[in-house]
Structures are given as C-alpha cells and as structure tokens.
Amino acid sequence: METKRINEDTIQVLIDQDDLVQRGISLPELMGNQERVEDFFYQILDEVDVDHDFSTDEPLTFQVRPLQNNGLELLIIRGSHRGEELARNIKAQLQGYDDEPTDELAGDEVDEALLDPDVDKLERVVVMKDFEDFVALAAVLDTLNLTSDLYQWQDQYYLVLTFLNDGNLTAGEVHDRMAVVYEFAQATTTTAAVLKEHGRLVMEQTAIELARHYFA
C-alpha cells in the first residue's frame, strides 16, 4: 500500500490486490456491502494517518476509483473547501444512491414491478472480461426502468439486466441501451437461473447505480 500526502487536507492511498487480500476483502465485496465499505475506509485512515491529523469528528470525503491492477485509489479529503462534490462526508455517501433525487424507480417500486404480472419484463444476461468494464458501463448506461444484478462465477463477472416495461418502454429504446451495453460486455448463453444457482451474487437489483455512486 502506497501513501502520499497531496496537501494538508488530502491523503492519496494506492491499494493493490495484495492489500485487499490481506484484509480479506475484494473490490466487488466492498461495493456490495455499505457497512464493510465504511469500516474499510476508516481502517485505512487509521493506518495511514500516523500523525492523527484527520479527526472523525470533522467532515471527511472518501473518493475511490478502480485501478487496472484490480486495486483502487483512495483519496481521503478533510474539510469542505474543495467544493460541493467533495464536501459530502462518508456517512452521506454510503446511504446509497436511492436517497438522492432521481427519476428512476425507487426500491419499493422496483420490488412491486418485479412481482407485478401486468408489467412486462425483458431479461438480458451479459458477461464482462473484468471488473473495470463493469464500472465503465455503469458510468454511461441509462437505468430508467431497469434492474441490474451483478454475479461473479468462474472468474468472470455477469450482469443480469431486467427491463421493466410499464407501457412507456419501446423495443427501440431497449435496442439502443443494449447497444451501449455491448460496447463493454458480450452476450452469453449463461442464464440468470444458472447464475442464481452457481454464481455469487455481488450486488442485487441496483448494481449499475451502486457502481456509478461509488466510482463516478
């Protein structure tokens, strides 16, 4: 783990795959478990803030992005002087995307739509060569009336996309969105049923939104 003091209010931490393994955690697991994310970030802060300059009583921002080596870069930022997007503290950040204003279906509405026999559902399964492709896809995919489940199976990442047609979703819109998906993923013969039985569910229903929330 490499640490660099950018300025008096910012610490950069480069965490590689071995660092994650030593702590018994993987990047997808961090994204799928909000409590684990918070604990992990503060654990890293305890390790790198040897002079105890950063108090947990003051506003702190944790910014993270994946690296090509399956590790991550973590910026720990103290105070709010760097602007609105850096002023959010970790507690607000980890409340989840569904606390933020959105035109997309809320969690309860998604559950109802998935169970409603009158709502048409179109399911697509794709596979990605690595986690970075999933993050890149999440940054650009429109998730209106769409649920997304991320699975890990046989050293690959699979995304189950379910389009919920409430009468306003056209075949052309689905085609256009899947064209975006195929820029980052490939079609697969593996079904959602196989993944549910044999794969490990990393993030349920809102995988795209979670990835966008943590890595955008």
TrEMBL record:
Instruction: List the Gene3D superfamilies hit by this protein, alphabetically.
Output: 3.30.70.1950
Pfam families for this protein: MecA
The family database entries (InterPro entries) matched by this protein are listed as:
MecA_C_sf, Neg-reg_MecA
| Extent of the signal sequence | none
Membership in a protein family: Belongs to the MecA family.
Protein name listed in UniProt: Competence negative regulator
